[in-house]
User: Fold these one by one.
Assistant:
Number 1:
Amino acid sequence: MNRAAMNPEQNPVQTKGAISIRNVTKIYDPEGVNVMAVDDCTLEIQPGEVCMVVGPSGCGKTTLLNAIAGFHSVTMGEIYLDGELLCGPSKPKADQGADRVVVFQNGALFPWKTLTDNVAYGPYVQGKLGKAESRQKARHMLAEAGLGDFLEKFPGEVSSGMARRAEIVRALINDPKVLLLDEPYRAMDELTKSIMHEALLEMYDRTRVTLFFITHDLEEAIFLGDRVVVMTTRPCKTKKILNVTIPRPRDYRVLSSDAFRQLVDETNEAVHEEALKAFEAGEREMA
Amino acid sequence: MAETETVAADHQRNPTGFQVFVVRLRRNLRTTTPYFAVLGIVLWLVVWWLLCEVLKAPRFEKMPGPVMVLKELLSPEPFLGISIFTEEFYQHVYVSCRRIFFAFCIATGLGVPLGLLMGWSKRFREYTFPILETLRPIPILAWVPLAILMFRGFEGPVIFLATLASLYVTTLNTLLGVDSIDESYFRAAGCLGSKPHHVFLHVVIPGALPFIFTGLQISVGVAWFSLVAAEMVSGDYGLGYLIIDAYMNNVTIPMVIGMVTLGFVGWGTSVIVRVVGSRMMQWRTRALALENR
């Protein structure tokens, strides 16, 4: 269980899960007036990278995530996953699929299913496993994530931290190429957050799945990420990319190191400028 | 370690909906709520009794008081022919309940799938919603002549009318239930690799259940309204018929007996729907129980 004691050679080297966002532009047209949410955004994400995306509220980060997941179409540009076209001019909207699983801002475990049934849902509906086998595997994976005492509980009966952890398990059971996280810890207090972060890092060290992680929280971004992508306010494009060189595995002690503080300062400057612009524009946030 | 945790969790027993119900009932009996409920009913009976039988207040002097009604209801040889000792009384209750049963089952069997489809398929809703909305405001009584023309005998028209009323309620509530489902559940289902029939089965149906059961509770009540209206126009038995028959014969006591019985039987049917609902939605019952609701 102790991450620091884990042999780094055990970590699988990831070869899948490269996302390539090329010149993506998204224009919304809700009331006959064009609103540009994303403007000519280009971003290359390596297989197994933890890519943290920060930017002011409503800048269009989620729009980008939704385009990768296949919830929205793109107006221009292409997005590739491992060299395969997800969406582009010939196919504005990507197909939804279990190779890119989303963890939602407000949590989207099905409240009418127990944690086990929630996790077993993916492999079962994809026809990968039978009902009993998928439940068996779900129980095993939940227990591994420290949720062994809550297998037959409904999401409404467990804490939000537990629910969010179960949601990540529900995503991972599908062995996705990319995990798309949309501010998953937004509504949590700092203490719960730090526990969630360590659990996420532990999971990441085990699986090395590519993470596309949207957040407002700079410390969260630097603590978790390999790279921090700072986005401009709407329309959204990449403003600055910071490499986080702090070695893995990381734990909470990193938070007080000089290297960490310096990165926070550096990011803060870039983000603050954009936040100010966003505030002055005073536009309503878009989902 | 993972294995032991799995085994331990298998032995863990969660309370089922019924057990939660019992626990809550017991806890309830320890609070003042049920006693106040009984007190409320007694108070109401006393006011009725005072107005009609003791004070004989103006406008109330011709109404039967609770003592008169109870005496007749509990008499082995009722003066006006109807009491809990007569077979006729049970015949009326039975006939009405049977009609409600059929009407409710037909309305639910048609209304829930119809509402689910309307909520799920935009195209289907575009076709059917205007029909529903234009039929809905037509009062059930307006359908009576057509119902009698369409169906033979007593049962057909009565069941048709009761069905019609509850069908609208059930369909509309089911439709709203599907609308109420958060978009993120559909998205989650989509990115977990669902095909459309999985979404229907695992998201649309369970997600709409809370609204469906709210609708069913209203619909069973509405079925009773329209059943009584229908029995008053056409019928040979039934609580509605009992009431209108007493009115025609100018006797008030059997009328009140009919009304009171209807109230209690109707309450019973709502309770059944509620209990079935909370059994089918354990996830909700349990979450609400945690909030002490």
Note: Residues 58 and 283 of chain A are 8 Å apart (CA to CA).
Number 2:
Amino acid sequence: MDNLVALQKTLDDLTCYVLIATTLAYWVHFAFGRLGWLGEVATAGMVIGCLTSAGLLTARWLESGHPFPVSNLYESLFFLCWCLTFAHLVAEYSSRQKVIGVFTAPFAAGLAAFASFYLPVQLQVSAPLVPALDSNWLMLHVSVMIFSYGFVMAGGATAMAYLWVTRREQQVELKGNSIGSGGMRRVEKTSPDGGSAGVLTMARTAPALQMSTLAETLDNVSYRLIGLGFPLLTIGIISGAVWANEAWGSYWSWDPKETWSLITWLIFAAYLHARLTVGWQGKRPAILAVVGFASVWVTYLGVNFLAEGLHSYGFFLK
Amino acid sequence: MALQKLSFPEIWREVRHEALTTLGSLPLAIVLFLVIAVLSITGTVIPQQQDWTFYVEKYPDKGAVVLGFLTWQRIIDWGLDDVYRTWWFIGILVLFGTSLITCSFLRQIPMLKAAQRWRYYDEPRQLARFALYGEVPAEQLDELNQQLKKKYFRIYQEGDQLYANRGILGRVGPILVHVSIILILVGGVWGALGGFKTQRSAVPGDSFDFKDLKPAQLAFVQPPTWRVRVDDFRIGNRVDGSIRQFYSDLVVLDAQNRELTRKTIAVNQPLVYDGVTLYQASWAVDSVLFRFGPEDEWVRIPFEGLAQKINGQETWGRYLPLDEKNKVGIFLAANNLEGVMAILYIGDKPVETYRLRPGVPAAVGKTAIVLEVKQVIGSTGVQIKQDPGIPLVYLGFGLLMVGVCMSYVSHTQVWALRKGDRIYLGGKTNRAQVSFEREFAQILNNLGASHG
Ligand code: HEM
């Protein structure tokens, strides 16, 4: 037992310092021209942060015996930290673009630092569950919600990377959109009237395979991350509603946290539909994704400061 | 178009078409998403459903007016004290539902049909228009077939022409999502009109019924005719003393006092009877059986909720004056069912504190007074709800979860045409652009493409 507690402390510190270093590595890498090895160090840092936070949660899980790793704010912060690093690694791997880390790493580091340095020690220790939280539905709900936050946050961060990469362009034409009619080539040699089409495209000659540009890749990866986070968010909200209905007879009571999760969900729904809308592609959905990103933070942490509802950790029977 | 030549039905058709296209349009949907989001925020910032005096105090109309315009008068007038039940909020939701239904018929179903229609291409230049395009040697057609099969494509081939697709589920998903949201909205309305929700509290031995239930306007509710007796209420503790669970033994009785059913309910374990669900929702210390020494009768002292919490827990209590003149009295307080704290007051000063448990009396100083507690009586708070919309809502929930997951799938199509010594290859996908690009490049490489 004591070994497990000591291990947790070590992993907690390690996660914090590694992620802070990782953030610096990503920033320096992009601020001072690409230093090849530093990018690799940054990615390695992210992998280590992902593993140490997972290790911390596992140790906690073995110690407390709770079925899921989220019974208080401390555990949920580290769980989100793990989800975010994990989603980042998925994004970085599938896009082969490190620039995403410039935006994901500071938030992952911030989560770990908040849990470790800012939370009072008595809130860090593992505690028994109050009756209302002692339910598998609820644990499923919380875990899925946080998992979805990880993915939509990574998607939002990737949208930031997109906006950063395209900051000098007025308008960006993209070929991949969800309608499928966009599956046509961007650069039609025969259509000089294509306006600003393909600002970012390098001149390539047919029949070369046109791979996506950096901006297009970021746009698409951001979309896929949010596309993955959105079903998780939906399932999370529904499991919460079902649990609330089973536990106290109301699947929706407009409690602030509930409402903010709906707001977040609506913003990402708007994002998904904006991508389908002709004339809305490019920066506008990306801005919506960033707004959604902010909304996730309000839902996750901000609501606790806004108002006191059912959801402040350990409600019901204080 | 010359307007005067249009007959009335034609104008009507025109207007209707215009209205429906607007109603089912994506920009409207996006705007509605965002408007609902913004309106919802107000209800999380302004505390909801408080007494109007609360708003008078927190949102004054003179002096420090919140944001410069948000006075309590405006809050009440605009319904910002109960945002989610105002006519304008519900109106927007109705508009949104209408948009969703219109959109499903006007766009979604045609889109699915369009996605299912496909054709072979017989000109290389038609394929060259696709986002992804490549050429491979002509003898590789069978190998291409194999490669696509390995990647789970469904393949159609006719001579030199080939079409393959994968992930049509991704086209069905959004439709399922939209239908399920309509189901949830309808189920929500159905539940609001056809159900009821109320709270009752009772101490063991008491019973409650639903005779005084007043259904809202428009509702078509049938309140239950049976009643419920509470046989017992207990709190289960952990070894360390923290609360683990609350239990109420409920018995459902008909008008002739016959037992219809019984169950011990707990948080997360309600009793469902006759379409009505009874939940363990709250509890309180109702009263204590108390006396001032072995000669006295046991008296039931009713407790009330105290503004002040003890150890951060909700607490109930009562002050018992002993000597009016000297202002001597005992203050009894409890925040659990195991014991009572008795505080001896002289004047406004607490002098002495005693912890009383059943069977553990406490003598007050050198007097003959002995404080004794026989039992702390808890009352259980039961939430009772009937919601006929639940099956529809749950069906919607289920389909929505399946539908959003399906919507992640990317619908991918590949065309190929063998002509001369080349196979021309075109492909597109609606979601996973980046990963399909890689897949496509890999196929081209495997088939010995001469691209790049
Ligand atoms: C709460 C309400 C809604 C939700 C949760 C929702 C959800 C979704 C999702 C998840 C998709 C798939 C997006 C993607 O390709 O990644 C989608 C597609 C779509 N939605 Fe909605 N939607 C809602 C309301 C609406 C409304 C009101 C309209 C009508 C204006 C609409 C029109 C469409 C269209 C046309 C598509 C494209 C379908 C396709 O790709 O086959 N949606 N919706």
Note: Confidence is low (pLDDT under 50) at residues 175-207, 308-318 of chain A.
